[in-house]
Amino acid sequence: MCPVQSSPPFNAPAARRLRAALGMAPGHVSYGLRAQYGLIVEPETVMAWERGELTPTAAELTALAGVLWCSPGELLAEPVTLREHRMARGMSPDELARRIGLDTGSYQKMEDAGRWKGNERQSVALAQVLGLTLAQFIAATGKQEELAEILRSAVTTRWQAYAKPLAKLLPVPREHLEPVLERLHADYQSAMVATLGWGGAGGAGDGGREFLAGIVERFWAYAAGAR
What we know:
Elements: H1 12-21, H2 26-37, H3 43-51, H4 58-67, H5 82-88, H6 93-100, H7 104-113, H8 120-130, H9 134-140, H10 144-156, H11 163-169, H12 174-213, H13 215-226
Helix pairs in contact: 1-3, 2-3, 2-4, 6-7, 10-11, 10-12, 11-12, 12-13
């Protein structure tokens, strides 16, 4: 089954603001898209983009950035997927693949599927080239559930056994992650002891579930302090 190609998260107010700052009318933008990029886009369509009624395709967005003398990233809302982060940086799939050490076809398959399968070195390069935070990297590579599962297992059993799998998942050295896992494990055990003292076994179960429900957020907070 082929993946559905979604439109980039277009920032309509930014497009309108940038056009107005250049003293251009929608007709001027339409003409620029046709003359410079061979795209037939009516002024009414440009206005619909700016009202948020329509969204430009990836090719139209790149061309629009050229007409408005800005980077594609200035026309995007907060990027989430690999494709959106790449476009925000104004990079082609070829350029990104080359810079992270992949052939274009392999990278494109991962981007289309929304699942990153690169090795640790390529993961580090991807995060660096796209300027991703750890949370952005996990969201862009589609590994939110995998991260949550590793963290849940780490705090409820022996955290030491999960330092290596976590280091494979994130573009961070293992030695930076171990103190974070140890702290999470200690906090979970403390929460279990505290709730057991308050309300017996039922309370302990409730306290554990509450801790685990917010474990990813805790991890991000602890990881930010450890780096």
